[in-house]
Amino acid sequence: MTRREALLRARELLADNAIEDAALEAELLLRHTLYTDRSAFYAGGDNELTAPQDACYRRMVEQRVRGMPSAYITGEREFYGLPFYINESVLIPRPETELLAEKAIELARGYEAPQIADIGTGSGAIAISLALNLPDATVVAIDISQGALNTARRNCERHRTGDRVRLCRGDLLEAVPYRVDIIVANLPYVRTADVDGVNTCGYEPRIALDGGEDGLEVIRRFCRQTGGALKPGGSLLMEIGAGQRTAVIGLLRDLFPSAQIDVFPDLAGIDRAVCLTLPQ
C-alpha cells in the first residue's frame, strides 16, 4: 500500500468515527509513523509503506478512533512554532493559548530584563516559548503536579533554556519566590458538570480542566493571591473560557479597583485572555 492510499483509508475511517479534522489527523499520524516533514511526506506520496510502517500506522489510527488524542499517541504537540513532548500528566497545549504567549511577549518587551511567572505550567510550553523569544527574561514555572514538572523539565532540556526557566512545585502563586513583572496563567476553568463532555476527557488530567461548580473556583483563589506576587505596574495575563468575561472582570475590579483591565479575543472571536495591569 502506498502512503497516499494509506492516508485516504485513514481519513475515511476517522471521518466515519466523527473525528474532527480527520484529514489533518490522518496526515499527522502518518508523518509521525514515517518521521518526515510535510514537504518530504507529500513528495513521496507514491512510496510503498513497509509492513512495520503499515502496522504502526494502523495501530495509531485505531487508538485515535477509540478517542485517544493525537498528541498523546505521538507524544508531541507544536505550540508557538515549537515542538513539545506531551504525555498524560499534562494538558495538551491549545492553539488559542498561544494568545497568552503572544501578549506576554509584547508586554515583556517593555522591560530590560523582565521577571515572569508562568502558573500552571504543565508541559512548560508557555514558559519555554517566552524564554526563547525573550533572551533577557527569567521565568519561574510553577505547577502543583510533579508529573507535569517532570515533563516540563524534559522540554526545558530539549530547548536548552538552561537556568532561565526555573521549575517550582507549588499551589498557584504561593510558590512564587519573589515579586515579578508579569504573571501568565492558564488555569482550569471548565465547570465540573461539563468536564465529562470535553473531547479529551479520560486522557487529560482532570485537575488541569476542572474549575469547580462555575468554572471559576481556582481562578478566584488565584486572583486573590495576585497582589502579593506582582510588582507595582506589573501585569497579569490569564486565559478564560467562553462566557466568563463579565464574571472575571468583576472579580478583578473588586480586588484591584484602580487597575487597567483589557480583554483579547482568540481567532474564533471568543474572549480568551484577560490582562490586568496594576498602577505604578
Structural notes for this entry:
With 280 residues, the chain is α/β, with parallel strands linked by helices. The protein has two domains: 3-67; 80-277, 3-Layer(aba) Sandwich (Rossmann fold). It is 40% helix and 19% strand. The protein contains eleven helices and nine strands. The chain has a seven-stranded mixed beta sheet with strand order 5-4-3-6-7-9-8, with helices on both faces. A two-stranded antiparallel sheet has the order 1-2. Helix 8 (146-159) links the parallel strand 4 (138-143) and strand 5 (165-169). Helix 1 (3-16) packs parallel to helix 4 (51-65) and helix 10 (217-226) runs parallel beside helix 11 (245-255). The termini are far apart.
- The CATH superfamily of the largest domain is Vaccinia Virus protein VP39
What topology, given as strand order, has the largest sheet? 5-4-3-6-7-9-8
* Percent range for β-strand residues: 15-25%
Q: What is the average of the pLDDT values?
A: 93
**Helical segment tally?**
11
The amount of helix comes to: 40-55%
CATH topology of the largest domain: Rossmann fold
CATH class of the largest domain equals Alpha Beta
SSE order: HHHHHEEHEHEHEEHHEHEE
Number of strand elements:
9
- Radius of gyration, rounded? 20 Å
Low-confidence stretches: none
Structural class based on helices, strands and sheet pairing: alpha/beta
Number of domains in the coordinates? 2
Q: Provide the CATH architecture of the largest domain.
A: 3-Layer(aba) Sandwich
| Biggest sheet overview | 7 strands, mixed
Overall 3D geometry?
globular
How far is the N terminus from the C terminus?
Answer: 65 Å
